[in-house]
Write a structure and sequence with these properties.
CATH architecture: Orthogonal Bundle
Helix content: 55-70%
Shape: globular
Largest sheet: none
Number of domains: 1
Radius of gyration: 15 Å
CATH class: Mainly Alpha
Structural class: mainly alpha
């Protein structure tokens, strides 16, 4: 298992993710996963990042709660084998941020999907969303 720099397409997807363009990032991560071919580390990172991007898109743009929690949990399981770092990404830190964010989403009321309280919660969650950090 190597710790080489990620390919350019993965780097572009990470940049989109960190800008908060989660839908675009998810598509780019999916493309990077297909392009990774036999490079299992890059493919595993891309697939997990795709799940996280999809989860954040669903949470922020569609108000989804449980589906977001499920996708983030699946991503954390996949990333667990890639700790502490892989492909120039601080996987350990990302997992900690995802775990904290997932707990925050779990604490949100299940039936709150509209109104000022919900919009305020989503605004605050967006500001605390996980970021993919390079080492």
């Amino acid at each position: 298992m190597s710790d080489h720099s990620p390919p350019a397409s993965l780097a572009d997807a990470i940049a989109a993710f960190n800008r908060g363009a989660y839908f675009d990032a998810a598509e780019m991560f999916e493309t990077a996963a297909h392009a990774a071919g036999i490079d299992n580390d890059s493919k595993a990172l891309s697939v997990a990042f795709n799940q996280i991007a999809a989860a954040l898109h669903m949470r922020f743009e569609r108000g989804g709660r449980q589906a977001s929690i499920n996708l983030m949990s699946q991503a954390m399981l996949a990333l667990d084998d890639l700790k502490p770092a892989r492909g120039g990404v601080d996987v350990e830190r990302l997992c900690a941020e995802i775990a904290a964010f997932t707990e925050e989403v779990r604490a949100a009321p299940r039936d709150e999907r509209h109104g000022l309280k919900h919009r305020a919660r989503i605004f605050l969650e967006r500001r605390r969303a996980p970021r993919i950090n390079r080492r």
